[in-house]
Every structure is written in C-alpha cells, then in structure tokens.
Write a structure and sequence with these properties.
Oligomer: single chain
Shape: globular
Largest sheet: 7 strands, mixed
Number of helices: 15
C-alpha cells in the first residue's frame, strides 16, 4: 500500500511539473496565439512531460527568464512552452537555462553551440516534432537556451552566461528528426536553421569537415559543376524555399530587422523641441516622481527632463544611488555595475509603465549620483554614472526577452562624462573575488 501511495505521489508530481512548463492560454494576449495554445494544450502538456523525462548530463530548466543562477532558477517561473510570433510567422518557442559550463580556453564558440544543440535542443526536437509536424499554422521551432562559459579575466576565475538561439523551419525540422543517425542528412537540415550565439550568427557543423565541404561546394558552383553532396542542396527547389523561409524569420530581441523602408528623418533635438516634449509629458513626469520617489530616490533639485544625446532625445531621471558595503574601494566599472543591478534595473519597468505605445522620444536616461554607504555626496566620494537606453531595447527588457547585459550593450554608459564598456559579469566578479 505504501509503495502504491509513493508511486501515486511521484506520478502526481511529474504531472504537475509538466503542467508548470506550459504557458497558460489566458496569459497570452494575442488572440490567434491564445487560441492555438488552448487548442493544443494537451499536446503541449505532454511535451512538457517528455522534456522533463529526458536524461541530461547537467541540470536543465525551462524558464521565462534566462541567465539565472541555479538557486534563483529553482525559485523562478518555469512556464516556458508557448506558441509565439516572429516576423508574422507562428513558431513553437522554448526557452531555458542549461547549467553546463564550457571552458572558454578549451572550447570555441561554435563548439559550445554544437554541444548545447546536441545535449538540449536535439533531444527536445525528437519529442517535439512528431507531436506538432501536422500543425498547419506552425512554421518553425524556436529555442533560446542559456549555458555558461568559464574562464579567467586578469587572473580571476569567472563564469558568465551565454545565450544560444536557434530557429528551425518546420520542413527542416521534420527532415532533421527523420534523418536519425544519418549525420549528412542532419547537417543538410541544420544549414537551413538560423543560429545565433550571444546575437552573433554561427553555423553548427556536426563534423569538422563541414566548413571545408561548404567551401568546396562554393568552388564547384563558381565553376559551373554540380556535386551530389549531402550538403549540396542548392538545386533542390523545395529547400531553396525553406532557405527563404528561414531568412524571413528572426528573433527580434537578438537580431535587428533590416527593413527596406527609408530611414526616418533626423530627430529634432532643438531647445524648442525639448521644451515641447517637456510640456506634453509634464503630468506623467510629475506622477513618476510622486509615486516612485521612495524607490528611486530622485534628486530634488534636478527634476526629470528631456535631453539630447547623440542626436536623439531621452527622458532623463536624476537619482541618488547608495551602494552596498561590498562596493567600498571598487573601481568605476564595479560601481557602475552595482548601480545598475541594485538600483537602476529596478526602476526601468515602473518608469516604462508611464510611457506605453509610440513616443516622440528615443529612450530613457538615468543619471545616478553613486556613492558608497555612509558617505555624503561630494566631489571626492561619489561618481556620476549615466545610463542611456533606447526604447526598443527597454521594451525587450521589460518583457524579459533581453537580459540586463543586452540592454546595456544596446545603450551607452558614461562615468564622469566618459563613455565606458560595461560587462556586468566581469565587474561584479571582481567585487566577489576581492571580498573573499
């Protein structure tokens, strides 16, 4: 009887865990996607159960948010499986965190991408594609998987997350899964995928011969010859169409859209234009100060205003930032990193809530008077750190589709008037090493 009870509890836990992997239809705003999510909810839940049952060398969690450490991940939202739209195409998207750590010195980026593909993405595709290959509206399978990279910076051992994105068209996915152990056929299908590692395009080669074979194919085409090679698919009209389909699909948070439309006219950053924006948004700015001051610590003598920076207009907020004890004696980079993580990042979503829809300005700026704990503001005890973020990157961060590092990379950070490059992992890793 006890064995039956334990078995029942185990099966119940597995079932509830699988349900936790799927986004609820009511949480999806788009009516078309919500209908698909509801229509195929049983299949999505079964997929979640299959994914949980897959054996892995290192822990893997489905998650709405990437780049979490494992302790945070265990306490975080693990709903991930959902239908989504990219460039007008319907994809079945899965995001997750894989806690494998690759040596930066021993494994190059392409090999890291290949390893995570083989250990995480391919096993999921094998249980996913058979369930959804008959869904007429589904055009591709999308993955965004975070793994870790370890290495040393200035002699300090650090570990940072790295994000792998793959978008595989439906026809290519069917061919890939159907290829079973035929590596050549698998490679042929993989060439139709969009693959990015930290937003940089990469190609996954299952064999070290891949690049050489591709070069040989290019030479053959230039000379007018035709090779019957497993990766020579240029003469297959069906696969040409698949290539076009793959080119049409992009992950907007990771790869910019290259539209054919002409660029917009230059932004008017004149004093009258700034004054006009200030007047139009005066009520919202006053409401932000009133509602968020206890959290933001706005500088009383510098109210929010619209400023010009690099030929664009930003709504800038001046705040006081007091750093934690561990920041004592830190560098400019370390203070800027802590200012973002401990203060500025927590203000972004509340401030953005006041600026929904299209705006007549380009982004938000945060001018932080950063000082160590117990210090009074002075020219010798504080740093002026300014963050300028474009609205497109802010929207991506707001919806948890971009990380804080991606947001920083899309914008600009200035310390005492000089622009710096800021790597959050490196900067805060230095603080952690110093405190030991």
């Amino acid at each position: 009887m006890q064995k039956i009870s334990r078995l029942f509890l185990a099966l119940t836990f597995l079932t509830l865990s699988a349900l936790a992997q799927v986004i609820a239809p009511t949480a999806i705003k788009d009516p078309e996607l919500r209908e698909l999510q509801e229509q195929y909810l049983d299949e999505l839940n079964a997929l979640g159960k299959d994914i949980l049952a897959l054996p892995r060398e290192y822990p893997f969690y489905l998650s709405r948010k990437l780049d979490l450490d494992e302790a945070q991940q265990k306490q975080s939202d693990q709903h991930s499986i959902r239908f989504d739209h990219y460039k007008g195409r319907t994809v079945l998207e899965i995001t997750g965190n894989y806690y494998a750590s690759y040596s930066n010195e021993q494994i190059d980026p392409e090999e890291r991408a290949k390893a995570t593909y083989l250990k995480v993405i391919l096993p999921i595709l094998k249980v996913e594609v058979p369930r959804f290959q008959g869904v007429a509206d589904l055009k591709a399978y999308a993955f965004e998987i975070s793994h870790h990279v370890s290495g040393k910076v200035m002699g300090v051992a650090l570990e940072r997350p790295e994000n792998l994105v793959m978008i595989l068209p439906q026809a290519a996915a069917i061919r890939l899964v159907g290829a079973k152990d035929d590596e050549n056929a698998q490679q042929s299908a993989l060439l139709l995928a969009e693959v990015y590692l930290n937003a940089s395009p990469v190609t996954i080669w299952l064999s070290g011969e891949g690049p050489q074979l591709a070069a040989q194919r290019s030479e053959d085409q230039d000379s007018g010859k035709s090779k019957d090679s497993a990766i020579d698919i240029i003469h297959d009209q069906t696969e040409v169409e698949q290539r076009r389909e793959a080119e049409a699909i992009r992950m907007p948070s990771l790869k910019p859209d290259k539209a054919a439309d002409p660029p917009p006219p230059p932004r008017d950053t004149s004093a009258p234009a700034l004054a006009a924006l200030q007047a139009v948004n005066e009520q919202s700015l006053a409401e932000i100060v009133k509602k968020l001051d206890s959290q933001a610590h706005f500088v009383s003598y510098a109210p929010p205003s619209f400023v010009a920076f690099r030929n664009q207009i930003f709504a800038e907020f001046s705040v006081n930032t007091i750093l934690p004890e561990r920041a004592a004696g830190g560098s400019h980079y370390q203070m800027a990193a802590l200012a973002f993580d401990d203060h500025i990042s927590h203000l972004i979503r509340p401030v953005l809530a006041y600026f929904k829809g299209e705006q007549q300005f380009d982004g938000l700026g945060f001018s932080a008077n950063v000082r160590a704990p117990g210090k009074q503001a002075s020219s010798t005890s504080s740093e002026a750190v300014e963050f300028f973020f474009p609205l497109s990157a802010l929207r991506c961060y707001e919806t948890y589709d971009c990380t804080g590092q991606q947001l920083i990379d899309a914008g600009a950070v200035l310390v005492n008037g000089e622009r710096i490059g800021l790597d959050l992992q490196v900067a805060e890793g230095g603080i952690a090493a110093k405190s030991k």
